[in-house]
Specification:
The protein is an alpha/beta fold. The chain has three domains: about 160 residues, 3-Layer(aba) Sandwich (Rossmann fold), CATH 3.40.50.980; about 210 residues, Rossmann fold; about 110 residues, ANL, C-terminal domain (GMP Synthetase, Chain A, domain 3, 2-Layer Sandwich). Helix content is about 35%, strand content about 25%. A hairpin with a 5-residue loop joins strand 1 and strand 2. The longest helix is centred in the N-terminal third of the chain and has 17 residues.
Length: about 550
């Protein structure tokens, strides 16, 4: 089957991706089945519900046959609020095998997110985790779907042991496929929209990013090669399903490498440490939040990470990452990417210490990037084999985001050094505007999180009658500490931060609101401050 052309990239560039082997025109089901043929008894998933490559491949093919029997095929969408694990992999592989589209959601997704995707896609099937249904606010979901989603042809359960009693009538992935012969491995359109990733929603409505199968296979292959993944590796999957980390980099990449996966349904540092030790995890993809939690562990739990040779992590505190390397003994390989141009840079294994701790990676093969205006720092534009196909039903938004020759306006402020290493600096839109001066809150956060009395921090702008906006440091203090504003501004002065960029207020809180992907929810922080102001005004 001839793959569809990419709607945003020049034809000659697409041809170069294929000639260089960057686009392989192969889907996940074919990769999975081939690995199962080579090593059928090799463990693909370890942990509480272990499965071999052969078992997952067979389950995926049977589930594909079940979906096909229900009329699911090319152009249809399967919406899937799931947790990491072999069932999520079987659902993804089955969906791609039919030429259908998968719209994954993390287990922390809301019912409104599910309804939004159903409305946007006229979904033909919903596969939903029992862990999701067990939440009190999801109690009437099944009846609601049956009543208000007429396009649905199949409703299937995963993690059945975690499901509430009222959902017991739903078949799970295994039961649904049990009566079917394994489907043939299909030849699908690897250039058509396949993966629908929801993004945004922190400061505005969610956008649905469309990716082709070629993009997912490319990004995961590059990641696996750059990180040296092999069949000897056991990879911790802690990123949420529905995010590129859990849907591509710790799902596609291990299968491409023939490695094993230890899924984490819910991040809890001590329990995860024990699982890492028990199953001999060797590689992880984590976030700065995970690293922060790990640094709070006692020595006994720290020792449980001794099998880990390294990990990749997104942009975070340089000092925090350096502290983690010193304490745990592994090497951190920083990486960078966006939902719209999936994980397209990672730090090389042989990069010197000062580069590893001060840059966010070297772009993958085929990636082209530059700073708008030609300076050392500014808005980062990028194009490459993992560029999105566009935003679902948002052509005007797609046109605003991507230039005529295929470069994505990322909205990220970056720097690129002479060797090509990229460094995330901040967001164009996440800027505090104080009396005509632009203040970058991320840079303040990176400095202030190093203060010994600060556990976590978010710096936000709030309205000010004279200045326009005022910077507020919202701090989670370390136990037993009560930092004062002068303590924080003193640290900034030591780093030569101009006084006009200092926070002018300090608010101490027990915890900071986070998005479903573990990032600071700036909108929620601002709302929390506004609610506090109104309470004080009464």
């Amino acid at each position: 089957m001839q793959p569809s052309a990419h709607p945003l990239l020049p034809p000659e560039l697409q041809a170069s991706y294929r000639s260089a082997g960057l686009w392989q025109d192969i889907n996940l089901m074919r990769i999975l089945v081939e690995q199962a043929r080579r090593s059928p008894d090799a463990p693909l998933y370890v942990g509480d519900d272990p499965k071999t490559y052969a078992e997952v491949a067979t389950a995926a093919r049977r589930f594909a046959a079940f979906l096909a029997d229900r009329g699911v095929g090319p152009g249809h969408t399967v919406v899937a609020p799931l947790v990491n694990g072999w069932e999520a992999t079987a659902v993804l592989a089955a969906t791609v095998n039919l030429g259908a589209r998968l719209a994954p959601l993390p287990s922390r997704a809301t019912r409104s997110q599910l309804r939004g995707l159903l409305d946007a896609t006229d979904a033909a099937a919903v596969v939903i985790s029992g862990r999701v249904l067990a939440r009190a606010d999801w109690q009437d979901t099944i009846e609601e779907l049956k009543k208000n989603a007429p396009s649905l042809r199949a409703l299937v359960l995963t993690d059945a042991a975690q499901a509430p009693a009222w959902a017991s009538g739903l078949a799970d992935v295994t039961a649904a496929g049990a009566g079917f012969e394994p489907a043939e491995v299909g030849r699908t359109d690897t250039g058509a929209p396949f993966l629908l990733l929801s993004t945004g929603g922190t400061t505005g409505p969610s956008k649905v990013v469309m990716h082709a199968e070629n993009a997912a296979v490319y990004a995961a292959t590059q990641y696996a090669e750059r990180c040296g993944l092999s069949p000897r590796d056991v990879i911790l999957s802690a990123g949420p399903f529905g995010h590129a980390s859990g849907t591509v980099f710790t799902l596609y990449a291990p299968i491409i490498a023939g490695a094993s996966v230890l899924p984490v349904a819910r991040w809890e540092p001590r329990a995860t440490s024990r699982a890492v030790d028990r199953y001999g995890v060797t590689w992880c993809l984590l976030s700065g939040t995970h690293i922060y939690d790990m640094l709070e562990l006692d020595d006994e739990h720290v020792s449980m990470w001794s099998s880990v040779r390294g990990l990749s992590a997104g942009s975070g505190s340089d000092e925090r990452y350096a502290a983690a390397e010193r304490r745990f003994g592994f090497r951190i390989r920083r990486m960078y990417g966006l939902t719209e141009c999936m994980g397209h840079a990672v730090m090389p294994v042989d990069a010197p210490q000062d580069v590893r701790m001060a840059r966010d990676g070297l772009p993958f093969d085929g990636v082209e990037c530059f700073i708008e205006g030609g300076g050392d720092t500014g808005e980062y534009l990028v194009r490459g084999p993992s560029l999105m196909l566009g935003y679902l039903h948002r052509p005007e938004l797609t046109a605003e985001a991507v230039t005529g020759d295929g470069y994505l306006h990322t909205g990220d402020i970056m720097s690129i050094d002479g060797s090509g290493f990229v460094r995330y600096v901040g967001r164009l839109k996440d800027v505090i505007r104080r009396s005509g001066i632009n203040i970058d809150p991320l840079e303040l956060e990176r400095l202030l999180v190093q203060h010994p009395d600060v556990n976590d921090i978010s710096v936000v702008g709030v309205p000010h009658p004279r200045l326009g906006e005022q910077a507020v440091a919202v701090v989670v203090p370390r136990p037993g500490s009560e930092p004062a504003l002068a303590d924080l501004t003193g640290l900034l002065s030591e780093h030569d931060v101009p006084r006009h960029s200092h926070p002018e207020r300090l608010v101490l809180v027990a915890e900071l609101p986070k998005t479903e992907f573990g990032k600071h929810n700036k909108a929620a922080v601002r709302q929390m401050l506004a609610d506090t102001e109104r309470t004080h005004d009464r």
